[in-house]
Amino acid sequence: MKDVKKVVLAYSGGLDTSVILKWLQTAYGAEVVTFTADLGQGEELEPARKKAELLGIKPENIFIEDVREEFVRDYVFPMFRANALYEGVYLLGTSIARPLIAKKQIEIAEKVGADAVAHGATGKGNDQVRFELGYYALKPDVKVIAPWREWDLTSRTKLIEFAEQNQIPIPRDKRGEAPFSVDANLLHSSSEGKVLEDPAVEPPSIVYQRTISPEDAPDKPTVVEIGFEKGDAVFIDGVKLSPATLLAKLNELGKANGIGRIDLVENRFVGMKSRGVYETPGGTILLAAHRAMESITLDRGAAHLKDELMPRYAELIYNGFWFAPEREMLQAAIDKSQECVAGTVRLKLYKGNVITIGRSSTYSLYSESLVTFEDDRGAYDQKDAQGFIKLNALRLRTLAMRRRRAGA
């Protein structure tokens, strides 16, 4: 790896990635190219440019890109068509962002002629796997540098000492030990570590970044109508919005009503259990709306098959296999199911709850004439149910007779 000449670093401008930038220059003697993605994390990104320039990066080697629309359109929305939940709870907010960052790093590497890419994920977490599986899927001969698996800067004290020795500015609030770590994008924020490491202890209120407490939410519910086309949300209250703008609007509504908090102990791909606090206000609303839309537009067989496929699909995303052929195969099946998932869903948002109160579609499979208790002659002959039940009971009756013979 010592022959690395140019490396593209996923760069946030924070202390950790600034130390990594300088370490790459000193340990490898490599020219560093920085990539900073605006994923809707809510932070000003120009300071990252200034920080990179301060550390000697040429302006032409600093890439900052607003990828919010691409993120929601090409990654978040396809995932939500599947109703993906990891271990039945986690809406995969961090997981789904990593393949896009990896893709952009590889594109930049090809553009500038870099022979390596680098990330700031630790050797204990899932993100190292997600980044690197993405890199290798898109550029199989790329060299990957993961500083946290190589260097000896294994404590906060050593990181700060390295920063001081190399004239890297250290914000005052970064000198102490952070109470927990945060990752954020337009879909969610996740908090892990330190004050959250004991799963028996309730998270302190300072952990929550994106939502107000359900107890503090308004006493009056908010009613919202979401319109869908081919499984994707496109309207809010009759107004057509771009994917990123729509998700941002749902985030506002979710935040104001205390929606989307999850305190989760999950099974990491690398083998350990991890406790995290996740906030996905807009995504929680979107999932409820999408399932409500599917409830009247998807055939039972298709709906049940989707639910069977979903855990596998979610696990692939969680484990970093977004670019794997099996994820793409599942996506093709899921997208096929969404052709008629179109119409509107009305929801009531109230103190942390998302309650479906109405749904309608020109593609609806719901038939009042079939379910009515009134005179339904010609729509459904109730006498047909007798043969249906007897055919389904045949094997059960056969088993029961065998038990009776054995008992005799």
Explain what this protein looks like in three dimensions.
- With 408 residues, this protein is an alpha/beta fold.
- It has three domains: 6-79 and 93-177, 3-Layer(aba) Sandwich (Rossmann fold); 182-298 and 340-360, Alpha-Beta Complex (Argininosuccinate synthetase, chain A, domain 2); 377-407.
- It contains twelve helices and 14 strands.
- It has helices at residues 15-28, 46-54, 68-81, 98-112, 127-138, 156-165, 243-256, 281-297, 300-319, 325-337, 368-371, 384-407; strands at residues 6-10, 31-38, 62-66, 116-118, 143-145, 181-184, 189-192, 222-229, 232-236, 239-240, 261-267, 273-279, 343-350, 353-360.
- The longest helix has 24 residues, at 384-407.
Low-confidence stretches: none
Rg, Å, rounded: 26 Å
Euclidean distance between termini CA atoms: 76 Å
Helical content, roughly? 40-55%
CATH 2nd-level architecture of the largest domain: 3-Layer(aba) Sandwich
Number of strands: 14
CATH fold annotation of the largest domain: Rossmann fold
Report the sheet with the most strands, covering strand number, pairing sense and barrel closure. 5 strands, parallel
Averaged pLDDT, please? 94
Order of helices and strands: EHEHEHHEHEHEEEEEHEEHHHEEHH
In terms of structural class, how would the helical and strand content be classed?
A: alpha/beta
Shape verdict: elongated
CATH superfamily of the largest domain: HUPs
CATH class of the largest domain: Alpha Beta
Give the helix tally. 12
Strand content: 15-25%
Order of strands, main sheet, comes to: 3-2-1-4-5
Number of domains: 3
